[in-house]
Here is the input.
Amino acid sequence: LVMPLLAFSIARVLGLSPAVTAGFVLLGAVTPELVSPTMTALADGNVALSSVSLVTIGVVSVAYTPASVIGLLGGTVDVAIWRLVAELLVAVVLPMTVAIIARSRYERVVARYDDSYPALAAVMVVLIIGGVAAANASLLHDSRLLVLTAGGALALNLLGYGLGWTATRLTGATPRERTAGTFAIGMRDFAVAAALVIAAGFPTEAALPAVCFGIIEMITSAGIAHVVSRR
Here is the structure.
């Protein structure tokens, strides 16, 4: 609930345009990154908690993401609400439902390739970043906009990690549960955010925060997983 507010505040402090601000709000309001359970596993965190968080937030986001966009952006940008809801159902809820059914009904077949899923996920993440970056190639020449957006993405990422770690600590969670909470809040599904930019009818530059966040998120999450697992 707090992440869209943080994203909006960061964009306003940096003086970003309404379109880029909309991209930040979408980024804060979407589900946790789909590979957050994988990063939690690499950090020896509570994967079950991470997975339940991912599914729960994914379902809630169908209503919460459009509400966040309308509530925070007001009339600064035009929003295609029903296209936004439809995209969330197709890009988030449907894949999660298929995955849960496949894992529960055909566990032996699905589990046979468990070692391959992290590598496949990493390749898909790189391809998505490349695709979204290509669509914003002209904006990447604007060094000031790029620096501000990257700085905002880094701030949102780090504040999300801190928020997840603090919130779970206040509930008396174990270290493994705090690790799960850290990734669940700090990692945002930038690919879904980029897709929602198109679904909502936002200008192309609204996808720039997702591009920057995706690159930063991969670096920071890998670093945290490495440090935590060693401890």
Q: What stands out?
A: The chain has eleven helices and no strands.
